[in-house]
Design goal:
mainly beta, Beta-galactosidase, Chain A, domain 5, Immunoglobulin-like, 2 domains, eleven-stranded antiparallel sheet, eight-stranded mixed sheet, about 0% helix, disordered N terminus
């Protein structure tokens, strides 16, 4: 596929639900027939919104939506202009020494303009590379390349930081995504909004996680030791935790509307991480936490202290010599799932809400399972032998799409065209329109009565 590269500025009116003709910012649209991503280079290179169908995932500050920042890139009193969306920061955060990033606010990496290089195919934007100004305080320059693909909600993000200083620098890359946790149909917050992340069975932390800000007994953070899962339920109580999760995914779930947003990344067990954490969660809300050498009391007024949850992933530390760069690749994906559904695992092609179950009863093979898929594809039902080798597949395939929950409930008669005699398991493979296997959604052993 031939790709054209050019500098492009696309002017869009985007007010995040607040319609206005007087406020404008320059935004860049990446979209396919499933998702739409809006990027605003001039406010810290933010990905201001990710949308699946008509569902918007990210929190956007309506008071700032569409507005260009002042020359200082800060508020009137030097405060943080929190536009929302998703952005890159250096880690660790802190205020004790110059080895910690004391933002936000930050007028360069968080609030400064980013250069935008658009990648197009057939006059359609398919990627954008965002690069910050050089930051003398941290000695680095941040950039990231976003790439969108056809027939999937997947976006790949190649983030990097370059040492622009004359001395060695040591930082991690910190990707911060703010999710809208407001009740979209009424006042108050969404009482069925979750984030889920597997706990590391070999965690450095006693309980698999550590409390970074807020009370130790914050009910927002609910570790499930039996399932080895951290369950974060938004309850509008301020707090933050860090986890050294090794699973490589986190799922943020709107259980009311029935949608899941998934971060995927590679965990490096032999490398040190900022805060010893590969994943962090910040819950906005009422209460108190200690930072900047003082106790901070948070307002219970959502106009001052909005309903939002941050799902954050971190790269390992990079020890950078002058002129050297470090890369951190991760992906996003999203899917429709049932309301009030917990995600129990995630893979490259989908999320599992109810695991695949396969059993033989009354001379019939029964298949059950509930999934959210990241591809518009077809699902093939494949039989495997005891060595996990494919031995047969049903001729019929099931059409699936990220816009609808994939609830599998199928019964197959046993016989000549049924289950092979040496079949030990069933796998679900997603196939593209050419018949190529995209990946495995699930597999399960066949349970005999």
């Amino acid at each position: 596929m031939k790709t054209l590269i050019k500098f492009v500025v696309i002017l869009c009116i985007f007010a995040a639900g607040c319609q206005t003709q007087s406020k404008k910012w320059e935004s860049i649209n990446l979209k396919n027939d499933l998702i739409e991503v809006q990027v605003v280079p001039d406010i810290g290179g933010r990905i201001i919104q990710y949308k699946l169908g008509n569902h918007e995932f990210f929190w956007v500050n309506k008071d700032l939506a569409g507005t260009m920042p002042p020359p200082s890139r800060l508020g009137p009193n030097g405060e943080w202009l929190n536009y929302g969306g998703d952005k890159l920061w250096p880690a660790p955060q802190g205020w004790d020494n110059n080895q910690q990033w004391p933002g936000p606010p930050d007028p360069v990496l968080d609030g400064g303009p980013y250069n935008a290089l658009i990648y197009e195919d057939k006059d359609r934007p398919i990627g954008i590379n965002l690069t910050s100004l050089p930051d003398k305080k941290t000695g680095i320059q941040l950039s990231r390349l976003l790439t969108i693909f056809d027939d999937t909600t997947h976006i790949s993000i190649d983030a990097s930081m370059k040492n622009i200083d004359t001395q060695n620098r040591r930082w991690g890359i910190w990707a911060v995504t703010q999710f809208d946790t407001a009740n979209k149909k009424d006042s108050g917050y969404n009482k069925n909004f979750w984030a889920l992340c597997p706990l590391n069975p070999k965690s450095k932390f006693e309980n698999g996680y550590k409390v970074m800000f807020g009370p130790e007994d914050n009910p927002t953070f609910q570790p499930d030791k039996q399932q080895q899962m951290m369950k974060v339920r938004f309850q509008y109580q301020v707090g933050k935790i860090g986890l050294d999760s090794s699973a490589g995914w986190i799922a943020t779930v709107d259980g009311t509307a029935g949608y899941v947003f998934v971060h995927q990344f590679n965990f490096k067990p032999d490398m040190p991480y900022p805060d010893n954490s590969s994943v962090e969660f910040w819950s906005n809300g009422a209460g108190e936490f200690t930072a900047w050498g003082k106790v901070n009391k948070m307002s219970d007024d959502p106009k001052e202290n909005p309903y939002l949850l941050e799902s954050e992933i971190l790269s390992p530390f990079a020890d950078l010599q002058p002129g050297k760069s470090f890369n951190f690749r991760y992906t996003w994906a999203a899917a429709k799932i049932p309301s009030n559904c917990e995600v129990i695992s995630c893979g490259d092609v989908g999320a599992v809400c109810k695991p695949l179950a396969v059993n033989i009863r009354d001379g019939k093979l029964n298949l059950e399972g509930t999934f959210g898929v990241f591809y518009k594809a077809s699902c093939a039902i494949v039989f495997l032998n005891a060595k996990n080798k494919e031995i047969a597949a049903l001729p019929q395939k099931i059409s699936v799409t990220p816009l609808k929950t994939f609830a599998l409930s199928r019964t197959i008669k046993l016989g000549k065209t049924g289950v092979p005699e040496n079949a030990a398991a069933v796998a679900l493979y997603l196939k593209d329109k050419t018949g190529r296997t995209i990946g495995e959604l699930a597999r399960a052993p066949i349970q005999n009565p």
